[in-house]
TrEMBL record:
Residues 393-407 have a biased composition (Basic residues). Residues 163-246 form the RRM domain. One of its GO terms (biological process) is tRNA processing. This is Uncharacterized protein. Residues 279-402 form the XRRM domain.
Length: 437
């Protein structure tokens, strides 16, 4: 499909002869421009003598096409592409670095511009970067021997980082394409490469790009100018521009803060763990196995409440086993005997008889170690959620009061949530040797 660019008409009167010259330019799908000149002569002395001729029709590459060809092929031979493009690296060793145009025109982006060898070579003759060398046969090109590739990826990464600018704030819309971005940044000078940042999962445009400039000076100049005169995208959005090495430094600072925060959390967790380890209640742990699907913490607690003060139940609905933690040391054996005696030698929870035993020795020590580590981590996470006064503008004191009232309400009901927490009254929490999470 062709697109009309312009049409110019001029009329000249010479006696009885009127000459009208019309020049029409159209843009073709292959990005060339067709110029058609039509001459219409009319002799008014002889109304029957009308002469209409098409003087010429020429097709030439558009200036934009030349720029696009140069930019695309120079990208193929650029540092960033040549070091990572396995296909081209294999091709350059076949003929002293020369790449036939017949190979290059199989690449999709160049194909979308043109596959005509003469159009490509005529455009490349206008290149001023010095990165390309054209063969005298005009059917192949190579990277200029005076512009050797960096010796290593490390050297390349350093060079690229120093001349790369990170630009964010571009609209995250589907109509933002690489071609549009290339056209947009053209107004700020030539660029070696533009990489669109994508969302990891959806692969949608993330609204930011990495722009590689030809030199470190050009990259710095672009960023400094953006501070004086904000860079605006086509829709008026103001873009934030920063050098990649500055971005790296910010990333390092962010990582350092993250690591420091993690160290603080680990320190708090260790403090909680030390406290919990000191509160271990030995000889007060009972294991239950073969739990029914209908079993709940409340049903388990009902069996032990007559013989123990507010036992802590480690159980999640649907689990095949449970642990009962008592509040007084060395009471597990006595309490379990009383529970079994009350059930005529059996312990039935829900609709199923379960097996029960007192946990002792290394198994008990292992249980406390694992349980305390988990509870210490949970306490740290809970403290983080409810510290800092960031929830809805309420003060810490007011928020804690609301949380306490909420906990009291929960403890008056069945507590069989999937988070593994057990219900326990406030009075029991105040008892010596009892910890709550």
């Amino acid at each position: 499909m062709t697109e009309s660019i312009s049409s110019v008409q001029e009329t000249v009167v010479n006696g009885d002869i009127v000459t009208t010259v019309t020049e029409t330019k159209t843009l073709n799908p292959d990005h060339t421009v067709t110029t058609t000149t039509t001459i219409d002569k009319t002799d008014h002395a002889d109304e029957d003598n009308h002469v209409t001729t098409i003087n010429q029709t020429t097709s030439t590459p558009s200036p934009d096409l030349d720029k696009q060809i140069i930019r695309q092929i120079e990208y193929y031979f650029s540092d960033v592409n040549m070091l990572r493009d396995k296909f081209l690296k294999n091709e350059v060793i076949k003929d002293d670095g020369w790449i036939p145009l017949s190979v290059l025109t199989t690449f999709k982006r160049l194909q979308s511009l043109t596959t005509d060898f003469k159009t490509i070579m005529d455009a490349l003759k206008k290149s001023i970067s010095g990165i390309l060398q054209l063969h005298e046969t005009e059917d192949k090109i190579r990277r200029h021997p005076d512009r050797p590739l960096p010796n290593s990826h490390a050297e390349l990464e350093l060079a690229l980082k120093n001349r790369t600018v990170y630009v964010e704030g571009i609209p995250k819309t589907a109509d933002v394409t690489l071609d549009k971005l290339l056209h947009f940044f053209d107004k700020y000078g030539s660029t070696d490469n533009i990489q669109m940042k994508k969302q990891p999962k959806t692969k949608d445009f993330a609204g930011s790009v990495f722009v590689v400039f030809p030199s470190e000076e050009k990259a710095h100049e672009f960023v400094e100018n953006s501070k004086k005169t904000p860079v605006k995208y086509d829709d008026g959005s103001i873009l934030e521009c920063s050098l990649q090495d500055q971005l790296t430094n910010r990333g390092k600072e962010k990582q350092a803060k993250k690591e420091k925060k993690q160290e603080e959390l680990e320190k708090k967790t260790n403090e909680h763990l030390e406290k919990l380890n000191n509160e271990n209640c030995l000889g007060a742990l009972i294991h239950l196995a073969g739990m029914a699907a209908s079993a709940s913490r409340e049903l388990i607690k009902e069996k032990f409440l007559p013989f123990a003060k507010m036992p802590w139940i480690d159980f999640n609905r649907g689990d095949p086993e449970a642990w009962v933690r008592l509040n007084e040391a060395n009471t597990a054996k006595d309490v379990l005997e009383k529970v079994l005696a009350a059930g005529n030698g059996k312990l039935v929870i829900g609709d199923k008889e379960v097996t029960s035993r007192v946990v002792e020795g290394e198994e008990e020590a292992r249980f406390w170690k694992e349980a305390n580590e988990k509870r210490a981590a949970q306490r740290t996470q809970k403290n983080e959620r409810y510290s800092g006064g960031k929830r809805g503008g309420f003060s810490k004191k007011k928020r804690r009061g609301g949380q306490k009232r909420k906990n009291n309400q929960n403890q008056s009901n069945e507590s069989d949530d999937d988070d593994g927490a057990s219900s326990e009254s406030n009075s029991a929490k105040k008892m010596k040797g009892v910890t709550t999470d």
